[in-house]
TrEMBL record:
Signal peptide as annotated in the record: none
Similarity comment text for this entry: Belongs to the sulfotransferase 1 family.
The name this protein goes by in its record: Sulfotransferase
Domain of life: Eukaryota
């Protein structure tokens, strides 16, 4: 059906307005026809412009068809517009990606970088050999002058908020309420003729029972299953039989290597385990105190079933078997021989990682954790010995970044991540205490790089609230790398280990360094000079306090 635009009446097939019966019929009068006089005309608009009244458009009685036509018209224009925008966006992205590499961006980046400079003493995470590496300067020479002052203001704000306040130590009953099962398994008295905290525990299984069937370390990791297969085979040979009952020897470590990550803990662990009187857990880093007992395998993966304390104790069964062999020997029974074997555990997260507290201990005070890892370790082992290996926190952070970053690693990317992390940390200290920010799980996960791990003195002061200073040995990776024999002697003396033959000592001190920097990371070179300057300013007040606590200016990490 077709209609006249003006009077909306039936038209002849040729659509000519003059043939409209009503407008041009035999009785038509121009003076009387309201259409011809211009009344009640329908104004049409196309692209927001009113059409002339002589314009004739085709209008259909089916209103859906009318709107569909208009919709198709607009949809076509919209698709064209979107397609154009997509093409333009792709061109711009390609331009920025290529331009950023060559310093060709028309719009300046918020961060400006300086020339790469060689660093004569850049060390890797837990790397010793890399300390002697010298990197060639980069050809890049982009100005970074505008970067430093703005970030320096952030650092000044953080520095103004630093307060080292002694934490309130929780009492033993509060700890019992939080971990009743742990306290039911670990006794408060241990065997007198062992350096380690060991005790006998009744075993109620039979010869067909698998003592490690439910061990979470064996269930969740294939590489640990070989160890537990061996333990199953020898388990019954090491039970102590008394009055028709079976007992197994349980032990906790005599000492802990508690930190820090990328500071040489792997190398120290590998050398210490070569000592004939030292035994470690079946795996190097159980991370039980900080993560596994809360059910954390990787925090980003959420929570799993909590690893009970029995699973952790199973890791020391190999060492317990050797200790029991001495205790049960005829010579040991007759002379009351004291066993010289000591057990160690080396989880680099123990010193600093308290991220899980907020999910389990809800009675916090102003965002600070009411209980820390050291509270529980001290409750069971007040005489435990602790070893801490530290390095320049600036170099530690870059090493940490290179180790954990998965893609697009570069000195420039590291610089941007440092700047972002500093901004996040500043936002926290403006509202909360320093301790609350250091142990803030949300903040720690949000920061692109782990700035907080290098705040050594914050963690050390909290450990000193429960342990005496003579129970903690603090070493520097720089000293360990330059004079390994001296630092290892310090460790042996601290742990009361007996003298070694020259051959044994040479084996320990002259073996190759462990966990050195990967070749692909070496090619990236050192961090940017401006990044180093920023981080030096950030860590300076913390290093100053650390040097005061330890009475050793070497922990200032000043460059000469």
């Amino acid at each position: 059906m077709r209609y006249c635009i003006n009077c909306c009446i039936h038209l002849l097939p040729n659509d000519l307005h003059r043939q409209c019966f009503r407008c041009r019929g035999p009785d038509h009068n121009n003076q009387k026809c309201p259409v011809c006089r211009g009344e009640n005309k329908i104004a049409l608009y196309t692209d927001s412009k009113q059409m002339k009244w002589l314009a004739v458009l085709e209008v259909r009685t089916d209103h859906c068809e009318s709107w569909n036509g208009l919709f198709c018209l607009r949809k076509g224009k919209l698709c064209s517009l979107m397609f154009g925008l997509i093409i333009m966006t792709l061109v711009m992205v390609s331009y920025m990606l290529t331009g950023a590499k060559h310093g060709l961006l028309l719009i300046p980046s918020p961060f400006h970088y300086g020339a790469f400079a060689s660093n004569p003493s850049l060390m890797d995470n837990e790397s010793l050999s890399d300390m002697k590496d010298h990197y060639q300067p980069s050809k890049m020479n982009i100005s970074y002058v505008k970067d430093y002052p703005s970030i320096k203001l952030i650092i000044d704000t953080i520095t103004s908020k630093i307060e080292f306040i002694t934490r309130q130590r929780p009492d033993l009953e509060e700890l019992r309420k939080q971990e009743p099962h742990m306290f039911s398994v670990i006794p408060n008295k241990f065997l007198p003729n062992s350096k380690n905290p060991c005790w006998y525990e009744e075993y109620r299984g039979n010869t067909t029972t698998d003592p490690y069937a439910t061990n979470s370390y064996a269930l969740y990791s294939k590489r640990f299953r070989i160890i537990f297969d061996y333990l199953r085979k020898v388990f019954w040979n090491h039970l102590y039989h008394y009055e028709d009952k079976h007992y197994r020897l349980r032990c906790l470590p005599h000492f802990y290597i508690i930190g820090q990550p990328k500071c040489g803990t792997t190398d120290l662990y590998d050398r210490l385990r070569l000592h004939p009187d030292v035994r470690f857990s079946a795996i190097k880093e159980p991370h039980w105190w900080t993560r596994k007992r809360f059910g954390i395998i990787r925090l980003r993966d959420g929570f799993h079933d909590r690893y009970p304390v029995e699973d952790y104790l199973d890791l020391f069964d190999l060492a317990a078997h050797q200790i029991q062999s001495v205790l049960q020997s005829e010579e040991g029974k007759e002379r009351g021989k004291r066993n010289n074997i000591i057990i160690g555990e080396a989880s680099a997260s123990t010193m600093w990682d308290n991220n899980a507290w907020i999910f389990f201990y809800d009675n916090s005070t102003e965002g600070e954790p009411p209980f820390l890892i050291q509270d529980f370790i001290h409750a069971f082992q007040p005489n435990a010995k602790l070893i801490i290996m530290l390095r320049d926190p600036v170099e530690r952070l870059y090493s940490d970044y290179l180790y954990f970053a998965s893609a697009n690693k570069s000195a420039e990317d590291f610089h941007e991540k440092v700047a972002e992390s500093l901004q996040l940390f500043e936002g926290c200290v403006l509202d909360y205490s320093l301790r609350a920010c250091v142990y803030n799980n949300t903040l720690n996960n949000a920061m692109p790089v782990r700035l907080q791990v290098g705040l050594y003195v914050v963690y050390l002061l909290d450990w000193l609230t429960v342990f005496n200073k003579d129970q903690i040995l603090v070493l520097r990776l720089e000293d360990h790398a330059s004079n390994m024999r001296y630092t290892m002697h310090m460790v042996f003396q601290f742990l009361d280990l007996g003298p070694l033959s020259e051959k044994q000592e040479a084996l320990i001190t002259k073996s190759p360094a462990s966990n050195t920097r990967r070749p692909e990371d070496r090619s990236l070179g050192p961090m940017l000079p401006t990044t180093k300057a920023i981080l030096r300013d950030f860590y300076r007040p913390f290093n100053t306090k650390l040097a005061q606590v330890l009475f050793d200016d070497a922990f200032l990490w000043k460059r000469t």
